[in-house]
Amino acid sequence: MNQNGNKAELAAVRQRYGHLELYRVWPEWSSSGVWLPPNIGTMAVGPNLIIEDFPISSQLKERLARWQGIFDDQIPEKMWPFPGPHAAFSAEGLNIAVELSRELGSEVAVEYELGIDGAVVMFQAGTCVAAYQIEEPERPTT
Q1: How far apart are CA 29 and CA 104, in angstroms?
Q2: DSSP secondary structure string, 97-137?
Q3: Which of 3, 11, 24, 142 is the most exposed place for a label (fewest CB within 10 A)?
Q4: CA distance 137 to 39
Q5: C-alpha distances in angstroms, 127 versus 17, 27, 47, 105?
Q6: Taking the complete model, does pTM exceed 0.85, yes or no?
Q7: Over its length of 142 residues, how does the chain's per-residue pLDDT go in tens digits?
């Protein structure tokens, strides 16, 4: 899909789901792995969520902590090259995003970046409702 098609697709997703509370499952060193992005499909992840006080099951909190712990213990160059050992890690992140959306219900959207060319999937109440690409930030013109 071309750049204009990506923008139109993302605009449609924002129009349909923009009223929902938004979270993103994304690993980062020393984080909880759950973020509050400012808008659907933006590169900015927003503030990191403090999981201990979040209304999700203890089982999901434990899964998140284990998943994030795996990321914290890795050297990026060893974890991310294709093909690489990250497939199981990425699959667990995807499953965590699905479960998080299921536990939080229909008034919440959860994004998960697949790690392939900025591809993102969005879940609502445990169901995938959209797929799109992360919006590239505007580059300054010279």
Answers
A1: 24
A2: HHHHHHHH-TTEEEEEE-SSTTEEEEEETTEEEEEEEPBPP
A3: 142
A4: 13
A5: 13, 21, 25, 10
A6: yes
A7: 455 568 888 999 999 999 999 999 998 888 999 999 999 999 888 999 999 989 999 999 999 999 999 888 876 666 555 555 677 888 999 999 999 999 999 999 999 998 778 899 999 999 999 999 988 776 666 6
